[in-house]
Structures are given as C-alpha cells and as structure tokens.
Design brief:
By secondary structure, the protein is an all-alpha fold. It is built from 17 helices and no strands. Helix 2 runs antiparallel to helix 8. The protein is globular, with a radius of gyration of 23 Å. The two termini are 16 Å apart.
Length: 510
C-alpha cells in the first residue's frame, strides 16, 4: 500500500473512531444555541430594569437575535460548505462566546442589543455547520439514527431547558449569568471540536459565492421575521406590518428567481424541490409554530395565573423534556431503520397534537397532575418521535457539497416557524381574551370579580390559541404522510438524488 493510501486509510479510521466524541461537542453547541433562544426571556424583566430599557424597546432584546439568526442562516450554511464545516463551527462558537460575554457585561441598551445581534449572527454560522457535520460524518443508517436521535432531542427540548436554566440563574444568581453561562459551553465545544472532529475530505463546495442570492436572502428573511414580530406588537392590519409582508414576499420571490438563473446558487433549488426534504421543511416549520406558541402560553399561565416562580415554571416543563428524550432516542432511533420515516413523523405529530388537546382543557383551577403533566408528556413523546427522522431526512439524498445549506434550511424553517408561532398564536389569544372580557366584565360587580374575569379571559385566550396549535399539528402530520415517500434506510451504501422508494444515505469519500 502506498504512503498516500496509508495516510488516507489512517484519516478514515481516525474520522470513524472520533465521530461519537465529536457528536458530544456538536450536541453541546446545539444545546447552547437552542436554549439561548428562550433563556433570555426569563431574565428580560431584570435586565430591562438594570439597563433602563424602555417598554417599547425591550422586545428588541429578543428581536435583534431572531433577525440576525434567521436572516443569516442560509448564508451561514453556504459559508460552511465553502469554508469547511469544522472551521465554520469553531469560528461560530468563538464568536458566540465573545458576543455572550459582551451581553453579560452590558451597561446600556445599545450594547445589549448589539450583543444580541452578534449572538444571532454567530449562531447562524455554527447551527447549520453542526447539522451538516452530522450529515457527512454519520452515513451508516443505524449509527445515523442514533446520532440524529440525540440531536433531535436537543433541538426539540433545548427551548424548555432554557426556561429552567433561565429561572435558576435569574432567581439565584443574576440575569447576567444567562449570558455568561454560554461561555463555558462554547469554549468546551470549540476546543473539543478542534481536536476531535475530522471532516471528511472532498465534501466542500468551492463554487464562487452567489452575492445577489446572499443579499436577497438576508433582506427577505430579515423582513419576514420582522414582519411577524411587528404583527405581534402592532397588529396584523397595521400598514407598516402589511408593507413588510409585501416586501418580504417580493424579496423572497426575487431570491427564488435569481437562484434559478445563476450557475452557483446560494440555495440550489434541488435542495428544496425534492419532495421528501420539502415535506420535512414544511412539516417541521408547522410543528415549531405550535411548540413555540405553547411555550409562551404555558409560561404565562403558570406564572400569571397559577403564581409559579420562574424556577417552578422551568421545572414544570421537565416532563416535556423527558418525553422528547424518550421519543427521539428510544422510539425514533429504534424504529427508523425498521419503518418508513412517514410512519414515525405523521403519528408523532398526531401524538403531539393529542398532548396539545389535553392542554385545551386549561382553567384557572386546573390541576397540574391531571391535565398539564399528561399533556406535556404526550407532546414530548410525539415531537421527539417526529423530530428524529425529520432532522435525518433534512439532508436526505443531498450532495455533500450542499449539506450545509440543506442543514440551514432546517434551522430556517424552525426560526421562521418560531416567529410565526409567537406572533400568530399570541394574536389569536389576545383577540379571544379581549372578546371574553368584553362579554363578561359587565356582570362583575366587585373588584375581586373583575380580576377573576380578567384571569378567566386570559386562560380562555390561551386555550383558543392552543386549539389552533392542535390543528397545525394535524396539518403537519398530513403533510408528512403525503409528501414524504421514502422508505426505511437500507443497511449499506447508496447514493443519489430524490429516490422515491428507499432512503439513500450519501457516502462521502474519505
């Protein structure tokens, strides 16, 4: 055997033996990014008071992160394909740690908002790089199933972990620690990735960067996310909100047209037009709409109606995390090599919808054990079961050079879904609450009765919105059952694009 062949064989062996270690660092980084999307919500009231942020501007602490993250995801995925996934992943982690340190040390509103925007930008680098690393490192079906099972549990449960961690840090330390906690996460993940990850060779996309596509995608996605954010605060009929939606539609249509014409597109249309991947992006985005809306309502319900502390509220979400872990690492992982993905995704979304149905029974005096607990467990089991094959299928049959941008589409569908879920379901809840109070406040004579009507109105609004979330999950299940036609993965290598009868796992040349 020649020296070159020996070196190649050694590199392949190293990559093979280290990939499970690499998974732990990739999972740690993914947990950091996902929980950061919710951890700051718990700390926001304290941070607002300390930094003198006005009520009108406080939403920008959340929005600045969402705009940068959502707007730059496709660009981040393309950079990972071009620059190298490992290098992009490590650079994203280092930048995220620096931005978190800046946010934790902020002394005024401008510094805080700048730090949040930087967190979103570096998160948009590392999130697609993390998922695409899994796609090119785990190609054997059973091992791929285990890896994506772990990743799926974290992707689904990280938001709830953020509530728990945010409550603990805010109540027992200081709001600044909701930022500083990211630093050890990022440093450990970056160091581990640098020394452990061996990215397979020959999987980069060295085509020149599609500048028009970059500009149009960033402007389009930022405008779309901001439109949903503004709809939540200023209403769907607001002229500026409507204008933003129109502008987003024009920009994204121009982006799609541009991608169909250029030689080296930022987002090759083959990535999203293949029916299995398209079904994943659409159904996953819908599921996130329902899930993020529920996070919001249950947090309000537990704290404002039931009087839970931030820590108790976070702990109340633990059954959801447990269900996600079991659904993803046990049910999804064990069955993905035995049944077609649609037979996991569609029933998973329906099971999650059943859990959501439990939560439509919320009332002021509802027992946690009899309604909320079983609802969260079923929701977690269903989401975990569906997320695992969904995340694995997101890079189904995709060429290695496109894995970064295909992975970015998963994060984009989740980010846009989260923005839609928060804005749309919150609007539905607010409208139902206003109507209920208007109809019932007249019969409330005393101040105590009026307060009771106010609380009843809030709960009525939450349950109305949760009913919509049930319908959204049924729609997600329908899309998964009809769009996704691939069969169970075969043991053994396969390659190709758009297979209808078997899940083809791309083989990367080492």
């Amino acid at each position: 055997m020649s020296e070159t062949a020996q070196a190649t064989a050694k590199a392949a062996a190293d990559s093979h033996s280290n990939r499970w270690k690499a998974l732990s660092f990739i999972a740690l980084a993914q947990l950091m990014v996902v929980l950061d999307a919710t951890i700051v919500n718990i700390a926001l009231p304290s941070a607002q008071q300390d930094l003198g942020i006005s009520d009108g501007n406080r939403q920008w602490v959340i929005t600045a992160y969402a705009l940068a993250f959502g707007g730059l995801l496709l660009f981040g995925g393309r950079i990972a394909d071009l620059w190298g996934r490992k290098r992009t992943f490590v650079a994203g982690l280092i930048g995220f740690a620096a931005a978190s340190a800046l946010g934790g040390a902020a002394t005024n509103e401008a510094t805080m908002l700048g730090a949040r925007a930087l967190q979103g930008a570096f998160g948009a680098l590392l999130a697609p790089a993390a998922l695409s690393l899994l796609a090119v490192m785990f190609t054997e079906p059973k091992e791929r199933a285990k890896a994506f099972g772990i990743y799926g549990a974290i992707a689904g449960g990280g938001g709830a972990v953020g509530f728990i961690l945010g409550g603990l840090l805010t109540e027992y330390l200081d709001w600044r620690w909701t930022f500083f906690v990211n630093i050890p996460f990022a440093v450990i993940a970056a160091a581990g990735a640098y020394f452990v990850i061996r990215e397979p060779s020959g999987s980069r996309n060295r085509s020149p960067l599609d500048i028009p596509g970059v500009v149009l995608s960033i402007l389009g996605l930022v405008t779309l996310v901001y439109a949903f954010t503004r709809a939540e605060s200023d209403g769907w009929g607001d002229s500026t909100t409507v204008g933003l939606f129109v502008a987003a539609a024009v920009l994204l249509a121009a982006f799609v047209f541009t991608e169909s014409k250029v030689k080296a597109p930022l987002l090759p249309l083959r990535v999203i037009t293949e029916r299995n991947r398209g079904g994943v992006y659409l159904s996953l985005g819908l599921a996130i709409i329902a899930l993020f809306g529920l996070f919001l309502f249950l947090t309000y319900y537990m704290q404002l109606v039931k009087g839970y502390s931030p820590v108790k509220t976070g702990l109340a979400f633990l059954p959801l995390i447990g269900g996600l872990m079991v659904g993803s690492t046990q049910i999804g992982t064990r069955l993905i090599t035995r049944v077609p993905p649609r037979l996991l995704m569609a029933p998973g979304f329906l099971l999650a919808g059943t859990g959501m149905f439990f939560l439509t029974r919320l009332e002021i005096d509802t027992s946690y054990a009899s309604v909320i607990l079983p609802g969260l467990v079923l929701l977690g089991l269903g989401m975990g079961t569906a997320f695992m094959p969904a995340l694995s299928l997101a890079t189904h049959g995709v060429e290695p050079r496109d894995s970064g941008v295909a992975s970015a589409m998963v994060n984009t569908s989740q980010q846009v879904g989260g923005a839609i879920g928060t804005a749309l379901l919150n609007t539905i809840a607010a409208s139902a609450t206003t109507a209920y109070i208007k109809d019932h406040i007249g019969g409330a004579g005393s101040k105590a009765q009026q307060q009771l009507v106010q609380l009843e109105g809030q709960v009525h609004g939450y349950t109305n919105a949760i009913w919509f979330a049930v319908g959204i999950l049924v729609l997600a299940a329908t899309i998964a059952a009809t769009f996704i036609s691939t069969g169970k993965p075969e043991v053994g290598p396969a390659s190709g694009e758009g297979a209808e009868d078997e899940m083809k796992i791309p083989v990367i040349a080492h």
